[in-house]
From TrEMBL:
Belongs to the NtaA/SnaA/DszA monooxygenase family. Residues 23-387 form the Luciferase-like domain. Keywords: Flavoprotein, FMN, Monooxygenase, Oxidoreductase. It is an enzyme of class 1 (oxidoreductase). The keyword NADP does not apply. This is NtaA/DmoA family FMN-dependent monooxygenase. It comes from Nocardia bovistercoris. It comes from the Bacteria. The keyword Cell inner membrane does not apply. InterPro entries: Diverse_substr_monoxygenases (IPR051260), Luciferase-like_dom (IPR011251), Luciferase-like_sf (IPR036661), NTA_MOA (IPR016215).
């Protein structure tokens, strides 16, 4: 029987968070992050995850009004959370396009040391000029090259972590602090990076932070299968999730890796009720709060590439064709590729089910994954995992910061009762929680370490 892994995310983009709910608190205040993280740790979750964009999205030249402005930088938040949690993994999204390996590797290694081995890195890429304007790089990197840079970026970070070899590090008998002998020397020459020097930060208890990736395109999936230890999935419907799971796991095996050492986590939501009917009604109310009339039209405009403000949000879909090359919503890949095919599929769904604009957007973008009583939701979570739709789940609550309370108090005990989820942590590091092999900083040179990975 597969043991299920659980994680939590405090959302920062999209329409998930219902800010109008009186129980909703600050989206940027540290206490909100701390409360959600403490709740996740109380529930014995594997990790707490923060997504991050490097620019607020814009819709028709104005800030997209469902994004959180003023959100603090993720690694800084997680470093603070390390002081108010003890076992919970801490996962940050850090961009491999607009950063440099030395700085990122140092900050992640620092988090791993400070947290006692709980750090994780979600490796993401960005190629668009819209984001690049913040860095004065414009669209300098072709889309086809983004994973090439990311792969070399990750390889360099691993070289830097490996540069502190076991034989070069000893603990001072009085202070217990690291004393450097010949540690940290590195040299790397490649297509994107040509650096050398000494890495100043010792490795944390895990050796390497856990590497996370969210590959969706064939290239992205292959990158994730080759490099990642946790793979995020957008598929929260069981049939699609199983197909993604099979595909990625087969790619993992094709790269000579054990599929058991790569965990797949779809992003999911939930709504509970005392009865099934009560849960369905709550789900309907939450979805309509998440997708108001204006949000529904903005969402549609992202795919149509047209101004649809004259259309009734409760009325039928626009009878005009989309303009796939016209991008009204900038800063998110969802609205870039395959829009014509998406619109065609949506027309079919709307016609078959008699859905207007707002109800269609709710159907395709705001329908909760798990809806029901605590018992039926626990059963559905278990079935999803046991039938290979996932190894674990990232729960994205619609309320900040109280959104996990019901799940932890009413569903987690039932999963523990089933014997599919831990009753307590059995290790101290994130790799322990995930059942991943610890990375040993062997007595090898950085070039030897890179050669081993390349082979």
């Amino acid at each position: 029987m597969k043991q299920i892994h659980l994680a939590a995310q405090l959302p920062g983009i999209h329409h998930t968070t219902v800010w109008s709910d009186p129980r909703s608190a600050s989206q940027i205040g540290f206490e909100s992050f701390a409360r959600l993280a403490r709740t996740a740790e109380r529930g014995k979750f594997d990790f707490f995850f923060l997504a991050e964009g490097l620019r607020l999205r814009e819709h028709k030249g104005e800030l997209h009004d469902v994004d959180v402005a003023g959100r603090p930088e993720s690694l800084t938040v997680l470093s603070a959370l390390a002081a108010v949690t003890e076992r919970l993994g801490l996962a940050a999204t850090v961009n491999a396009t607009f950063n440099e390996p030395y700085e990122v590797a140092r900050r992640l290694s620092t988090l791993d040391v400070l947290s006692g081995g709980r750090a994780a890195w979600n490796v993401v890429t960005s190629f668009d000029a819209f984001t690049g304007e913040n860095f004065r790089r414009g669209g300098f990197l072709d889309e086809a090259d983004r994973y090439g840079r990311a792969a070399e970026f990750l390889a360099v970070a691993r070289e830097l972590w490996d540069s502190w070899r076991a034989e070069d590090v000893r603990a001072d008998q009085v202070s217990g602090e690291f004393v450097r002998a010949d540690a940290g020397a590195f040299t790397h020459g490649g297509e994107h990076f040509d650096i050398s020097g000494r890495f100043t930060t010792p490795p944390g208890p895990q050796g390497h932070p856990v590497v996370i990736q969210a590959g969706e395109s064939p290239t992205g999936r292959d990158f994730a299968a080759r490099e990642a230890e946790v793979v995020f999935s957008k598929y929260d419907r069981l049939d699609e999730a199983r197909a993604f799971y099979r595909d990625v796991k087969s790619r993992v095996a094709a790269h000579g890796r054990s599929p058991e050492q790569v965990k797949i986590f779809p992003s999911v939501t939930y709504v509970l009720g005392d009865t099934e009917a009560d849960a369905r009604e709550r789900a309907r109310e939450i979805a309509r709060a998440q997708v108001g009339p204006r949000t529904a039209l903005i969402y549609l405009e992202g795919f149509w590439g047209r101004d649809l403000s004259d259309y009734d949000p409760e009325g039928p879909l626009p009878d005009i064709d989309p303009e796939p090359e016209n991008q009204l919503l900038k800063g998110h890949s969802t609205f870039r590729n395959g829009r014509a095919e998406t619109v065609r599929r949506w027309r079919e769904i709307a016609e078959q089910r008699g859905l207007g604009i707002r109800d269609l957007v709710i159907e395709v973008a705001a329908t909760p994954t798990f809806v029901g009583t605590p018992r039926s939701v626990a059963d559905a979570i278990d079935e999803f995992a046991q039938t290979d739709g996932a190894d674990g789940f990232i729960f994205v609550p619609h309320l900040t910061p109280s959104g996990l309370d019901e799940l932890v108090d009413r569903v987690v005990p039932l999963l523990q009762e089933k014997g599919v989820f831990r009753t307590d942590y059995t290790g101290s590091t994130l790799r322990d929680h995930l059942g991943l092999t610890a990375v040993s900083n062997e007595a090898v040179t950085p070039n030897e370490a890179a050669s081993r990975r390349a082979s």
